[in-house]
Amino acid sequence: MNIKYFFRRFTSTPAQSSFRERLREYGPVSVGVYVTLTFTFFSASLASITLLGVDMQKIQNVFDRMRETVGLQKAPTKDSNDLSWLPEWFRNPIVTQVLMAMALTKLFLPIKLGLTAFLTPMVARRLRSLGFNLRDKGGLRDAGVRVRQRYQDRMNKKV
After folding, report:
1. What average pLDDT score do residues 57-84 get?
2. 104 lies in a domain?
3. What does the alpha-carbon distance between residue 45 and residue 19 come to, in Å, rounded to a whole number?
4. Structure confidence at residue 129 as a pLDDT band (50, 70, 90)
């Protein structure tokens, strides 16, 4: 017995689908899921930075360790309140908090991509159950009309 045919009996090969078919099926949904996750991560990061604050000394220690690892000298210590070297718009604490939240959100990119890949089929399944035809062109518009009609039918039955 040939070994290749032996293993073929016990393994099932998934149906082959092209990338374009998957993109057509999940494209708009995956973009929506990714944007929602990005907004959620950014909001959580900004809220935590704003409410909990940031310990600048710890951040300076991390950068000093990184510089020592690479072989650079430590940054000269300056007065932490002397921000005259920064542009005027950058001295606003809200701007720095937003920029730090953006950087923190960027660090979560692998997690966001994994969650997007995990959540997209579930969201697409839920949208299909609500009447959205995701594969066809104009399916979203037609689904809006169908959902509106269902809502009006339910409201008419209650009255």
Report:
1. 69
2. yes
3. 33
4. confident
Given a contact cutoff of 8 angstroms between Cβ atoms, the answer to whether 134 and 44 are in contact is: no
Residue 149 lies in a domain: no
Count of structural domains within the chain: 1
Distance of CA 101 to the CA centre of its chain: 14
User: In whole angstroms, what is the distance from residue 137 CA to residue 28 CA?
Assistant: 12
Residue 77 pLDDT grade (very low, low, confident, very high; cuts 50, 70, 90)? low
CB 54 within 8 A of CB 100: yes
Structure tokens, 43: 């909001």
CA atoms within 13 A on the CB side of 144: 3
Instruction: Tell me the average pLDDT across 139-159.
Output: 76
Range of the domain at 127: 20-77+87-131
3-state helix, strand, coil in the chain (%, to 5): 75, 0, 25
